[in-house]
Write a structure and sequence with these properties.
90 residues; mainly alpha; Arc Repressor Mutant, subunit A; globular
């Protein structure tokens, strides 16, 4: 939890690209509907992304920009840190 709080305090609020926001919106919608985070293959399939590495890149950038937090080595461990309008949840 300390790691999450330090990430939030270091957030600068850079804007995400349109494609990154597509990924972020899908993650938010998926969590609201199913109460779990989507897998990489689910994100790729829904957004018609042919490469899992591209999905990983979008998720990495969203994490760097403070939109979500992911624990290394854990599947489906995303925590959304911002609302869709870009404001902080915490």
């Amino acid at each position: 939890m300390n790691n999450i709080m330090s990430q939030i305090s270091n957030m600068q609020k850079p804007l995400a690209t349109t494609r990154q926001m597509d990924v972020f919106k899908f993650i938010n919608k998926y969590i609201k509907q199913k109460h779990v985070t989507p897998t990489i293959p689910e994100i790729a399939k829904k957004l018609k992304i042919n490469s899992y590495s591209v999905v990983h890149r979008h998720l990495r950038e969203l994490q760097k920009k403070g939109y979500l937090y992911r624990e290394k080595g854990k599947r489906q461990s995303m925590i959304v840190l911002r609302k869709l309008d870009g404001s902080s949840i915490i």
